[in-house]
Amino acid sequence: MDVANIIFDLDGTLVESTAGIEYSVDRAFERRGYSRRASGLRALIGPPVRPILSEISGEERAQEWEGPEAPFRESEGRNNTVLMHGAEQALHETIFARVGGTA
């Protein structure tokens, strides 16, 4: 069987991005002049960033976050994202099993 593409979920499956997302949300809050968030974000991670920012800020209008969304995306939070334990090996084994290669 020829395999053209293999698609993986990232957040919570291959990478742990919570620390990076929290860092980026904190930068967006600073830019907007909000006080620091009082709780973690793990339960909110998954949807696009605007609903997350809206939920934790209490602002119901997502368009209010167009400005702070940029610092969220531009922050260095992505540098706090790490591979989940065993992700590299799982990817390696999956890819080689699918394409018929050897490790």
Question: Can you describe this structure in just a few lines?
Answer:
The chain is built from 4 helices and 2 strands, in the order βαααβα. With 103 residues, it is mainly alpha-helical. Helix 1 (18-32) packs across helix 3 (66-74).
Any key phrases for this structure?
103 residues; DNA polymerase, domain 1; two-stranded antiparallel ribbon; 45% helix
What order do the helices and strands come in, and which of them pair?
Elements lengths: L14 E2 L1 H15 L16 H9 L8 H9 L7 E2 L3 H13 L4
Helix pairs in contact: 1-3
What is the CATH third-level topology name of the largest domain?
DNA polymerase, domain 1
Distance between the termini: 19 Å
Helix percent reads: 40-55%
Number of domains: 2
The helix count comes to 4
**Which outline best applies?**
elongated
Largest sheet data: 2 strands, antiparallel
- Name the CATH architecture of the largest domain: Orthogonal Bundle
Structure write-up:
There is one protein chain. This protein is 45% helix and 4% strand. By secondary structure, the chain is mainly alpha-helical. The two termini are 19 Å apart. The longest helix has 15 residues, at 18-32. The protein has helices at residues 18-32, 49-57, 66-74, 87-99, and strands spanning 15-16, 82-83. It is built from four helices and two strands, in the order βαααβα. The chain is elongated, with a radius of gyration of 18 Å. It has two domains: 1-16 and 81-103, no CATH class; 18-80, Orthogonal Bundle (DNA polymerase, domain 1), CATH 1.10.150. A two-stranded antiparallel ribbon has the order 1-2. Helix 1 (18-32) crosses helix 3 (66-74).
